[in-house]
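Weekly structure sync, notes
Attendees: PL, DS, HV (note-taker this week)

Item 1: Maleylpyruvate isomerase family mycothiol-dependent enzyme
DS walked through the input record. Source organism listed as Streptomyces coeruleorubidus. Sequence as pasted into the shared doc:
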Amino acid sequence: MIDHGHDLACVHAATERLLIAVGKLDNASVTQPSRLPGWTRGHVLAHLARNADALVNVLEGRPMYVSGEARDADIERDAPRPVDVQLADLRESAARFQETGAAPADWSRTVELRNGVTDSASRVPFRRWVEVELHHVDLGIGYELEDLPAEFTEREIAFLADRFAGRPDVPPTRLTDGTRAWSTGRETDDGPEVTVTGSPADLLGWLAGRRTGAALKVDGGPLPALPPL
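Item 1 (cont.): predicted structure, written out as tokens:
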């Protein structure tokens, strides 16, 4: 059972951590490259602000973005802004998301995200939590995958494992941190072909495209190649 109220509280806490960290940056550091190819830290911050507004659109029954081109143009427009403007936009857009999430609503309804993807409204707060946590890491300012809340890491591993489940281009794979296990890849009656073992941070980093998987132990074949998110 998804507890959207709990997840909204987790989004708020993650956003506060992000705002404190961004508040320590200066204008020059915002223009420096992030860990995402082709994006500065300003691009990441602009995306986070516009994503909050986009998820408000989703919860209120509007298209998430006018178009992919408009989404990209908004990020490019907002990326060069000074850090104080970025910070204010992050704070204000996050507040709008929290206010929308706190409004009475049917959280069991189905909503539409980008590219025709649908989900339960109750999972939208978790999706926002993912954006805030992973993009905080992407800024490259001292917040690492190992710093993520344990609950978030476990849930995001499960979410991504489910996302790749049934994919014919991913071999049947068992993921484990030595205590917990998840299954992903195409279905088979013969059990997993590959077992991937590692720390929760390394498993998440690989699944989310943030790490190569070099730190993972692989048995039964090579490390599977995952499709882009």
